[in-house]
Amino acid sequence: xxxxxxxxxxxxxxxxxxxxxxxxxxxxxxxxxxxxxxxxxxxxxxxxxxxxxxxxxxxxxxxxxxxxxxxxxxxxxxxxxxxxxxxxxxxxxxxxxxxxxxxxxxxxxxxxxxxxxxxxxxxxxxxxxxxxxxxxxxxxxxxxxxxxxxxxxxxxxxxx
Amino acid sequence: xxxxxxxxxxxxxxxxxxxxxxxxxxxxxxxxxxxxxxxxxxxxxxxxxxxxxxxxxxxxxxxxxxxxxxxxxxxxxxxxxxxxxxxxxxxxxxxxxxxxxxxxxxxxxxxxxxxxxxxxxxxxxxxxxxxxxxxxxxxxxxxxxxxxxxxxxxxxxxxxxxxxxxxxxxxxxxxxxxxxxxxxxxxxxxxxxxxxxxxxx
Lengths: 160, 201
Hints:
The complex is a heterodimer of chains A (160) and B (201).
Chain A (H helix, E strand, L loop, with lengths): L6 H9 L4 H13 L1 H17 L11 H10 L14 H20 L4 H16 L2 H4 L1 H5 L2 H4 L6 H10 L1
Helix pairs in contact in A: 2-3
Chain B lengths: L4 H9 L3 H23 L2 H17 L10 H19 L29 H19 L3 H12 L4 H8 L3 H18 L1 H16 L1
Helix pairs in contact in B: 1-2, 2-3, 2-4, 3-4, 4-6, 4-7, 6-8, 7-8
């Protein structure tokens, strides 16, 4: 294996995170390559040097500023969903007013009513009971009634 | 038992302010340090760190624990830092090779074990020399080194944060450490001498 080939494996090897086969390959190369051995050793020293750089601490007001910015964020309202947008509410109100106005001012279709009445009249005319009126008028039982009740019999069709 | 990052973030999602406070305390220092080393300005680093926490808070309702929380957090931080650097707002803060202190090679005296004022100053110089070497790295290499060395994230996490493959990340890290090895050669030599002295004694 060449020096270039171990480049991608060297960092993981020094980290102890290389896979077993990679680790063996790197170790085999380091056994034979003095330049890469030196490089690996110097990488380790560089890593320990990086730890010498002191960490910085956030300023005293840092947390307060984060909290302040978070508090300024809009919070979801508990009953936000039923409250409509102003434009939507206006459109709904307008539709309701239009619906009421149309129902009040629209003319009643009289022609249709008349046609409906004629149909009903025709139906009544064709009722079986009316067809049987003559039969009823000539019933013998009626002729057996006392003479005083005869006029009533004569008026019977008018009642129907 | 301390709650995990994901548990805390799910708490934030439910509207639990205490969970957000715990996440703030857990990551405030590491975020400010990461951003400080990226943009090289303390005030800007704090502004960006605040922005990271704010974005985490804003995204709470959509949060799904599909990846590690730190991956998500440092991805936001890295993107903010890289954008800020690319905007050019902090260009004046970038370290050129001429000002990186290469000529000011610090001298370490190991003979006296007591930390005197002079030694403390020398330690500070040495730390400053190392810090400048890190800051002189290209942005992406710098981010990779910071996440790898200071925040000890796994390769797959860093690769996701920097949006590259794991093998590309390992090459990136190799080039970064190779550059640092060259820039820090005077100190590496001293360290080697120190190590040799330790072995001999």
